[in-house]
Fold this protein.
Amino acid sequence: DAGVIQSPRHEVTEMGQEVTLRCKPISGHNSLFWYRQTMMRGLELLIYFNNNVPIDDSGMPEDRFSAKMPNASFSTLKIQPSEPRDSAVYFCASGLTGGYTGELFFGEGSRLTVL
Amino acid sequence: GNSVTQMEGPVTLSEEAFLTINCTYTATGYPSLFWYVQYPGEGLQLLLKATKADDKGSNKGFEATYRKETTSFHLEKGSVQVSDSAVYFCALSDPNSNSGYALNFGKGTSLLVTP
């Protein structure tokens, strides 16, 4: 079975540019999470969706960040405009909340570098 | 709110040494506890979990026991291998809290095992 698929794996962009990160969760999973990983702050939850509905976006840093989940098989995280401090690895994870086990399945991450 | 604290790394051990990585948590409810492992360049993978007090999670020779009285979930392995070199994350989730099904991670502990 395919795991969580993220794209792009690596992105290098210049300050001020728009960045879009994409995620395809595991088929059948009903929850999706976006995390950001940096050396300084570790793993931070940005937003999570349950049944395609955003449940908690309190971790989204500011208005430059937005996330969507138009259907059960696709989500995007957009940064506009990007800044150097946004450089990080962004992980998408999915899980199944019915019959809760708590386990989340992570993609390989998108490494973003903003120059 | 809920939080996880784990020992700072890096931890360097010789092959076949005993490993302990300490993890303590703060939670208002009755969380599930997890250890995830991240190998270089990869996403996080579930290593083991425990869903209630006194449960022991185990996998690949690693063990951790959910201790409610000390709010701890320390990771142990009797004899580490070079292939165990990775970053280990302690995490909790509490669906009845404001953060719902999201995992709340510690900062991670880097382990290096030398031959």
